[in-house]
Design goal:
Helix content is about 0%, strand content about 45%. By secondary structure, it is an all-beta fold. It has a 4-stranded antiparallel beta sheet with strand order 2-3-4-5, with no helix packed on it. A 3-stranded antiparallel beta sheet has the order 1-7-6, with no helix packed on it. It is globular, with a radius of gyration of 14 Å.
Amino acid sequence: MDYTIIAVPDMNDSFSRVVLGGTSYQMRFTWNDTAGRWMWGLYTSDRSPIIEGVRIVPSLPLNLFCGRPGLPAGAFGVITEQESIGRRDFIEGNAQFVFLPARDTKK
């Protein structure tokens, strides 16, 4: 299985540039200290929102029910063996935020 690992910065709120399928995007990762959870958003290169405020949960495609124009073909998710993701889990290597591109079925 081919996937892209996307680094989550050691910050409570951040924007990062990522290129997926030849297109540049901005990703936002936000730690909600009160709720004890990470949130995620995907934006165009000029920070126009495509999808925002998605709670990051383990072992579930984050954009499964989000059929929005501008989303890259594939699924965003977290690889981990944990039941929840804490503030330092990405930095300490306990979780990886990934993008799994859609398979090309054309032959």
